[in-house]
Write a structure and sequence with these properties.
By secondary structure, the chain is an alpha/beta fold. It contains 18 helices and eleven strands. It is 45% helix and 11% strand. The longest helix is centred in the middle third of the chain and has 28 residues. Bound molecules: 6-O-phosphono-beta-D-fructofuranose.
Length: 521
């Protein structure tokens, strides 16, 4: 069903056409109260929303049966229809869903094995092939097997309460400047490599893992040492075994966990190593609280649902062509990267679940960066550019560094930016270049203090928001067929570039291949 054919969509289109609401007025009396979940406050007070629009949006969610679809997901139905898979990342945090005892046992078993590895690495009892404790962990993986773990490790690992002295590195890109910038810093006797790949066939991860293995063997001449220096996380246990990994160092994942929803699985091993077992448990507990909230809260105060409906209002009715994620906290610098995959790989789709043209716009571009850096770069466009957008401001209330001047200025800037975007500035007639139109809708997420519980809840709210949007747009948020073509096309180009076989290409590509060949010494 095309959502544009629903009565609710048509009603919202009418409301949008009549919309004369100004944020200068709406911010005087926000329609929604600030909503709290596990130490995160979600404030939609700077959205172009009145009671009538809110009612219309909730009617849209009812007509699109968002809650019925939610229940199907939580109950393990194969809602990823193009791959015939269930979508049960919520089972990894033992959420509100009713999962089979088999799944619950399998999850717990893997979590216990993760804990054994993580604790041994953290307390120095995991010994390398020369009996030295581990000092460096290198996580090799890409996309969903990388972005979540690096985000969480960067966000939480410096927290003195949980951190260890271990250095955790991440290598994702096929570009050698990624892995080969890390390797010279390492002592192979004290390094543990984690290879995370759901499929264990992803080019980047395979090439990086093989290079890491060769680097290790060249320096140690110890094939048996592989067992003490490499662990892997995958659904493809057979492939991982042929890489030479010891069975006890292989942690399984399951086809019912999508890659970009997998940081809660064994893919999160570097997180557990960085913040400890209890820290990881808190992260899961935060996500679990979001699962419960999503499963049990009525529409009017359901945070992921409201986030999704407001996003739909902004993108489909008010013409917002991008979502800026503006994190006013350096520790969350990787949040936009993580959300790019979560939102754009999930909902950047053009066909419906039934394979028809979708007929409306789906996910716009998501981008972002940290404040206040961005204020001196791209905020000019946000204030005076011609394209509509929406933004999520994310900031942390507590001053954990006890640096009040820094912290209060940071928070003041975040609030001032969203205020300027909402209210704008009416310039004198002879200074039109100073005019700031305002009326740019934004949300603010205020985190009490940045800990695993809060971060777990925040990320799970975004996951469920993505889910609700996918249902409203009638698309499958859990496949990613679009990325396959580029992978296929790279193979013959690689063969040509590396002189294995000449493949004919279109002229525009061919001349670039020849230029690269000519420039390569
Ligand atoms: O190419 C896209 C993708 O399939 C993502 O969806 C996934 O997170 C990433 O590649 C890595 O896949 P894998 O974990 O199988 O190596």
């Amino acid at each position: 069903m095309n959502p544009a054919n629903t009565a609710a969509w048509k009603n919202l289109a009418k409301l949008a056409a009549q919309d004369v609401s100004s944020l200068a007025e709406l911010t005087k009396q926000p329609t929604l109260d600030i909503l709290e979940l596990s130490g995160c406050q979600f404030d939609f007070g700077k959205q172009r929303l009145n009671q009538e629009i809110l009612t219309g949006l909730i009617e849209l969610s009812e007509e699109c049966e968002v809650f019925a679809h939610r229940d199907k997901m939580l109950n393990g139905e194969a809602i990823n229809n193009s791959e015939d898979r269930a979508v049960l990342h919520t089972a990894l945090r033992q959420g509100a869903n009713v999962v089979s005892p088999d799944i619950a046992n399998a999850v717990q078993d893997v979590q216990r094995r993760m804990a054994t590895i993580a604790e041994a690495v953290r307390n120095g009892t995991w010994l390398g092939y020369t009996n030295k404790p581990i000092t460096d962990v290198v996580h090799i993986g890409i996309g969903g097997s990388h972005l979540g773990p690096e985000l969480v490790v960067r966000a939480l690992a410096d927290d003195g309460k949980r951190s260890s002295n271990l250095k955790i590195h991440f290598a994702a890109n096929i570009d050698g400047h990624d892995l080969f910038a890390i390797l010279p810093q390492l002592n192979p006797e004290k390094t543990l490599f984690i290879i995370a790949s759901k499929s264990f066939t992803t080019l980047e991860t395979q090439v990086n893992a093989q290079s890491a293995r060769s680097w290790f063997l060249e320096r140690t001449c110890s094939p048996d040492g592989i067992a003490k220096h490499f662990v892997a996380i995958t659904t493809n246990i057979g492939e991982a075994e042929s890489f030479g990994l010891a069975e006890e160092n292989l942690l399984p994942m399951w086809d019912w966990v999508g890659g970009r929803y997998s940081l809660w699985s064994a893919v999160g091993l570097p997180i557990m190593i960085a913040i400890g077992v209890s820290g990881f448990e808190e992260l899961l507990a935060g996500a679990r609280s979001a699962d419960r909230h999503f499963a049990e809260t009525q529409a009017q105060t359901n945070i992921p649902l409201l986030s999704a409906l407001l996003a739909t209002w902004n993108y489909n009715f008010l013409g917002a062509g991008s979502l800026a994620v503006l994190t006013y906290d350096e520790r969350l610098a990787l949040l936009p990267d993580y959300l790019q995959q979560l939102e754009m790989e999930s909902n950047g789709k053009s066909v419906t679940r039934d394979g028809d043209a979708v007929g409306i716009h789906t996910m716009p571009i998501l981008w972002g960066g940290t404040g206040t850096r961005g204020q001196h770069a791209y905020h000019q466009l946000l204030h005076q550019g011609t394209r509509a957008f929406t933004a999520d401001f994310i900031l942390v209330a507590s001053d954990d560094l006890d640096q009040a001047e820094h912290h209060n200025w940071l928070a003041a800037n975040a609030l001032a930016q969203s205020q300027a975007m909402a209210i704008g500035y009416d310039a004198p007639a002879n200074q039109p270049y100073r005019q700031v139109p305002g009326n740019r809708p934004t949300s603010t997420i205020l985190i009490d203090e940045l800990g695993p519980r809060q971060l777990g809840a925040l990320l799970a709210v975004y996951e469920h928001k993505v889910f609700c949007q996918g249902v409203v747009w009638n698309i499958n948020s859990f496949d990613q067929w679009g990325v396959e073509l580029g992978k296929m096309l790279a193979e013959p180009i690689y063969e040509t570039l590396s002189g294995q076989q000449d493949h004919k290409q279109d002229l525009a590509t061919q001349r670039l291949i020849e230029t690269i060949q000519y420039k390569t010494p």
